[in-house]
Amino acid sequence: MHRCPMRLCIWIIFCVGLVGCATMRREAPSPDLRPCTDGYAYTADGWRLGVRHYVPAHRDPTKLPVVLCHGLGLNATFWTITDNHLPAQLNERGYDVYVFDIRASGENGRVGRTDRINRRLRQTPFRERGEADWNVDDLMKYDVPAILDYVQRETGKDRVNWIGHSMGGMLMYPFLELNEHPERIANFVGMGSTITLAVTPQKDMLQANRAIRALSRFASPGRMGRPLTYFRLPGMSKIDKFYFSDDNVDDRTVSRFYGYTLEDPGPGAFRQLDSYLQFGHMLSADGRVDYAKLLGRVRTPTLMVAGQADIISDVPSTEITFRALSSPDKTLMKFGTAHGQVADYGHCDLVWSRHAPREIFPPVIDWLDQHQPGAPVVVRPRTREAEIAQAHAEVSRASIPAE
Predict the structure, then answer these.
(1) In angstroms, how far is CA 303 from the centroid of its own chain?
(2) Is 37 helix (H, G, I), strand (E, B) or coil?
(3) Residue 254, SS3?
(4) Using H for helix, E for strand and C for coil, what is the string for 136-157?
(5) Confidence band (pLDDT; 50, 70, 90) for 389?
(6) Does the global pTM surpass 0.85?
(7) Tens of pLDDT along 358-375?
(8) Is-contact 139 110, C-beta < 8 A?
(9) What is the largest CA-CA distance in the chain?
(10) How far apart are alpha carbons 46 and 133 in whole angstroms?
(11) Which domains does the chain have, with CATH numbers?
(12) Which end of the chain has less Cβ packing within 10 Å, N or C?
């Protein structure tokens, strides 16, 4: 009778005792697990964004830099908690790679009086000040231009290749639809990124979304989840299934996810997602702009990557978004056993799976190589997996006409 309250008390005491959890990340054994601190981009609305630069051993001057943007409730270590990760493979192909922590992730904060307070709160399970003030629109309006300006100052290149996972790709659609200079994105790769849903409402995700919002009123969901790096609680599989497939992702990766990558999603951003999960179209925070209805404005060369077992951005929803794009150069790649791969890929499996370095990254980078300005045509030895992905991409282009 008293077991549940007792377990809750033990959990709260344990979490409150996690003083120094931000220090643990800052002093992680590998830079791949630490917050981004190579440099800082500053947004027009007053946020400091940490950036990390992965420098290729042999830079290819014909290739534009790559920006990798993680999803909501995570930070940039999302891309680097596995071995042979995507930034490393991009470096091997000669690309300069920039990863960054979106606002309220890593050690980012508003420049001003709350910054010092939040640095202390970051060592506790309690929520930082100002976290409820931003939404997805702000990521598109402020974070994206700030990162593009940073990369331009660093490299002299005014255009980039943008690879986004989940929200890191979702925010790119409104940017390309509404920004005055969409040409700054030379090529766009969206991995598990769709702004339309084939089936609504998404009851399980709505329930999870609202539960996290309720918790975030008085505590930090991200920091309260960090003890899960050491042990798992009963019933965790119900939450994990949204992120990854147990049989496709190594235990060490899962441990690193909870210890180094998990962050607070931001109540304002989760409020905006509520209508998306309920009605199936991504809307602006004030509800006045339907970004899904504006997809016809997107003409940037686009590669969409979908996992057969993805619950958050499933294949049918991805196909709807893909059809709506007006880009004359668009490709859809699907990854799963039905498409010739060794596993069905879940949402984060697209980056975290033990098979991704062999099955997903090479065809994605091949696509980028083919879209670099002025790059010579280079015939590379193709792996069987890359050939399979390319074959299915060709089928997708042929069988899913633009609406």
Answers:
(1) 15
(2) coil
(3) helix
(4) HHHHHHHHHHHHHHHHHHHHCC
(5) low
(6) yes
(7) 999 999 999 999 999 976
(8) no
(9) 71
(10) 12
(11) 3-399 (3.40.50.1820)
(12) N
